[in-house]
Amino acid sequence: MSTAVFTTLQSSGGTVPTETIRRTIPRAEINFNQVGTTSIRGSFNVSSVTDIGVGTTDVNLTNALSNANYVATSAGGSDNVSNNCYVVAGNQAAGIKSTTTCRVALVNAAGSAADTVEPTVAFAEV
Amino acid sequence: MHLFDRLLDAKDRLAPVQSQYRVLFEDPAQPDAAACVLVPDPNWMAAALAGGVLPPIDTYLRDQSVPDGERKEHPYAEPIGPMTEEEAIEYLIMKDIPPRVWRDYKGNRQIMKIVPVELIPSDRSFRNAWRVSQEPINQKEAA
Hints:
The complex is a heterodimer of chains A (126) and B (143). Chain A is mostly beta strands and 126 residues long. Helix content of chain A is 6%, strand content 45%. In chain A, strand 3 and strand 4 form a beta hairpin. Chain B has one domain. Chain B has a 3-stranded antiparallel β-sheet with strand order 2-1-3. Chain B is globular. The interface between A and B is medium-sized, with 31 and 35 residues.
């Protein structure tokens, strides 16, 4: 097997440091299920999830992010009732978003906490 | 090799392992809150069982006192060898559950249990009222 090592990539528009490319890929991802017994379908850089209560789950990361100003992009999925669920990701001020843990809370169209079938979250550093 | 790179490599070559255990716990800092359930990640469990990926647990414990934004120790630590599933669950408890639950709590009430997954109720109708059962673990539900 051969290994290519380089520090910048060049295109017709100029060069991009490989470190910049590395930082723009998601640092962690998860697809899980809150309905019935909580389970994880797929993930990267996640050590566990903590089921806190209805619609509320903490995502715990294996490799801590460099700071807590990261982006948590998420999709709520369906609660099998209203089919419209929204995600409220943790915030630093409330102490539920850190470099190692982010709380994900899901609410249905009526604004009530709801367990959903397939919430997904991707974490990217900025 | 950085921990992030080891995780990428492990994701490519290791099949996920669904743990047979869950950790049920209550937070003594929030006595009115429902019991929590810790669910191990299948890719993390595969890495723990295979060895050569995860850093020593004491690096995570020391990093808890490192402020966000400063360099942490665990991504750069040498990886440890393979663990059994039971050892991996103990590691995960120390990593992802606050020390006030598993180390500092001095009360009489049992606030943490490692239970087989089938003892976690699948009916979540009263999920926000779950408490850790004080009965010995048996074939009934644990919460």
